[in-house]
UniProtKB/TrEMBL annotation:
One example GO MF annotation: methyltransferase activity
One Pfam family per UniProt: Methyltransf_25
GO biological process assignments: methylation
Protein name: Methyltransferase type 11
InterPro entries per record: Methyltransf_25, SAM-dependent_MTases_sf
Keyword tags: Methyltransferase, Transferase
Residue ranges annotated for the Methyltransferase domain, each copy included: 94-177
């Protein structure tokens, strides 16, 4: 258990959101029983529940910029991917901060050429790898690494972010994405706390959001 990280997170919530929000966060994190989501019942996987970062084994100093684990809703992700209007078979899907890998399972099923998840919490990366094996998702891999160090592969990309980290890490990710020798690029960003960084990047422009999933903001490459 990382008490220093827990204290930092609580202080930040207190400062940014006030006492009531901090209390709600503590109750949610201490009292949350592992939820067996409908997705897991159908697929025999383990992707549910909340996992605060202070409970996990993370070797990176960027833990202080990270957000707890909470999975994306399958239907929201499918809506966002369909909204791209692309043939996904030529694309690589990348989830930076993939947690237990629910998005990777969905993306593999939707026919992406390659699916990559990056997760810095050892326990979550192990669960994600196990989930991929259980579902025999052979086009997908999980890298146990810090997203700030991830170098994007060549070719057409869909980058997925579920509000995984704050500006200092996102800035490094954006620098790597800008430098990537990529073809067409999309970024799907759920609950986009740092949307302004993408809006002012100079190489991305707004693509919109699916009507059924307004939390899913989408950008596309424009340079
Ligand atoms: C809100 S969860 C999203 C999980 C998954 N992307 C999904 O949508 O189902 C954010 C995840 O980002 C991970 N994370 C935060 N900062 C990270 C970093 N610098 N490198 C890798 N993973 C990170 C957390 O451990 C957590 O699992």
């Amino acid at each position: 258990m990382n008490i220093e990280l827990l204290t930092r997170k609580l202080m930040r919530t207190l400062r940014d959101d006030g006492v009531a929000a901090a209390c709600r966060r503590v109750v949610a994190q201490l009292g949350d029983p592992p939820e067996v989501a409908d997705f897991d019942r159908r697929h025999g996987t383990d992707t549910g529940g909340l996992a605060p970062l202070w409970r996990l084994s993370i070797g990176s100093p960027n833990a202080r910029h990270g957000e707890r684990y909470e999975a994306t809703d399958e239907h929201e992700l499918v809506a966002a991917l369909e909204f791209l209007g692309e043939n996904l078979r030529g694309y690589t899907f990348i989830d930076l901060g993939c947690g237990k890998g629910r998005t990777l399972l969905v993306a593999a099923r939707m026919g992406f050429a390659q699916v990559i998840g990056v997760e810095f919490a050892r326990e979550l990366a192990e669960i994600a790898t196990d989930n991929l094996h259980r579902q025999q998702a052979s086009t997908a891999i999980v890298l146990h690494a810090d997203a700030a160090d991830f170098v994007f592969p060549h070719g057409d990309l869909v980058l997925y972010l579920y509000n995984p980290f704050s500006e200092p890490v996102l800035q490094q990710v954006m620098d790597h994405l800008r430098a990537a020798d990529a073809g067409r690029r999309y970024v799907i960003y759920k609950r986009p706390r740092c949307a302004a960084m993408l809006d002012t990047s100079g190489f991305l422009e707004r693509h919109g959001h699916p009507p059924s999933a307004p939390q899913m903001a989408i950008w596309r490459g424009c340079a």
